[in-house]
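User: Fold this one for me? It's Sulfotransferase family protein.
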Amino acid sequence: MEIILHLGAHRTASTSLQHYLRRNAGVLGRGGIEVWEPRKTRDGLLSGVIAEPGLRDAPGQLSRARGRIALHLHKAEAAGMAVLLVSDENMLGAPRRNLRDGALYAGAGLRMARFAEAFGGRVSRVVLSVRGLDSYWASVLAYSVLRGHRIPLAAQIAALASSPRSWRDVITDLACALPGAEIIVLTHEQSASRPVQRLAVMTGRPEAEMPRAHAREWLNRAPMLGDLRRAVAARGGDPARLGEGEDDARWQPFTRAQSAALSEVYADDLFWLRAGADGLATLFEETGPAKAGTHPPAGQTTRGHRNGIEERRLA
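Assistant: Here's what I get for Sulfotransferase family protein.
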């Protein structure tokens, strides 16, 4: 049985994809695809892969998790499943930890090495969706404020804008943690609203075989500026700290210069991916996969941001 891990990332329409997978679980199962999404993975199945405070030490917790997962894998194989798709962005890390670290999934390598061991070294493919760093951090910050966290100070926002860690570093960490697994990268800008296409790429099956039901149901979108203002005011905060803008607009915590710097880093990441990612990963775009040794799009001969990354998909 082929084991595929979908790692999100957070704020790349993972919740919408998981909803689509959950609602189509029966159809997928009849086609030999078993899905483990957060309602299953966060109900104790993956507990202990990442050590938790308790009576057992980290190796003991991992050993128990490995045994538990092995039992579920055996059950899926006995049922005739050919593919297991595990979709849970929390395997990669947590947005609140990213904000605390001021960096993009700094612990991804160590975490994913433990998941590789928990699945008995059987992971054959890893799928990661990446997103423009300015809109990624803006979405993470907006969701954080909506859930009751303080509006970030200017110094914290500046630190995020100047963080040297990018998606290239995350992908490199994944390649080190799972050296035998194929790494597929999708962009949020192109694939967020296309769960059918995403599932086809993840499983390596024709898009025509993927179910269409519930493909246009979007969940967990980032809050608008008006939502944030009401949430901040309701808990006694000062909505004016969110800055200017219409209530139906997205909150943009970065200055123009900071957004431009983040966009430049993302453009460099995409350039690296389109040029083959040093053989570590394959980028799938509307034109198909970009393999090692291929060239960037026509007319793009230098690294960096050219015409702007259009934010036209899910937030």
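One thing worth pointing out: The longest strand covers residues 123-130.
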